[in-house]
Amino acid sequence: MIDDFWLLSIEEHTTAGFYSMYFGKKYQKRFQSDLITLMPRLWRFALSLAGQKDLADDLVQATCLRALERESQFQAGSNFAAWTMTICRSIWLNEMRSQHLRKTGQLDTAIESSLIDPSPSPETNIFAAEVFKQVMRLPEGQRSVVELVFVEQFTYREAAAILGIPIGTVMSRLSAARKTLAPLKQEQANQMKKGELA
Question: What are the CA-CA distances from residue 19 to residues 3, 14, 41, 46, 132 (Å)?
Fold first, then answer.
């Protein structure tokens, strides 16, 4: 459901130019293709971790490079998205997050106006912007779980494996996020009722 409102402008992250610097002849075509296909999802996950568009861009670039370097470690038949997102989370926690915090002293959240899809109706975008704003205000741990479970449709077990946390922690973070976002769901229901009565 939240996927309907997590409307991100990711066009610049799905163009050939974005990838050309990463893919050389030594990488297998199938691996490259899978990585390119995964890019929009990977970028959304990176944004849920980093909370900032430019940091998400850097995180995706670092993740692609690391995945390409470790291509031989990927086990055929396993979940490529989960494997890549695990790399992304690892890079965020072990490298980028601490560097950014040292530089700025804080993690800023992304500006929703630059991330909302301009094509839907204004009413949809207003609600989408509000949902996005509320999701980005969630603590980092809750944001990443919301992204993996609600948007990417991973199971609790898969999300737990990607994030390196117990399933119970996934469930408790989702529960806390649902409570925070519940007023938005009620607001949407109220608006739909008004539309039906009009």
Answer: 25, 8, 15, 17, 27
